[in-house]
Amino acid sequence: MASNKPRPRSVLFACGLNSIRSPMAEHLFAQLIGPSIPVRSAGVQTTGLDPFAVAAMAEIGVGIAEHQPMTFEELEDLDGLDFDLIVTLSPKAHHKALELTHRLAAAVEYWPTPDPSVIEGSRDQRIQAYRDVREQLSKHILERFGPPPAGNA
Who has the most CB within 10 Å: 28, 84, 142, 143? Predict the structure, then answer.
């Protein structure tokens, strides 16, 4: 069930490093909502794409291995930051997005999402943390945006 909030024209998902949560959200959004709303992701800083994130997404048939992590600044230089909505998944990204609203006309929503990379233990315990984040993000996306509108193919 979609929320009663208006559907944005475009969405940016943001987290600290653009290596786990925001690329997962970007690609889940594209799969669940479809092409009617452009979506991207960025981080406050960047690092390499997390292999556990790649594995957790591959389990549901969503490939993110080609994702190139980028910062807000790199994304702005490449494509601009023309987003109606910035969904932040970490405190650092939330603060950065709020700073950007001084010059961008974008709404900001904070979806606190745990960092699965801090989980220690066996491989199974670690990958489960990534699956949990994947499922949490899927649920949030569907609750917030719902299925694509009929007739908007």
Answer: 28
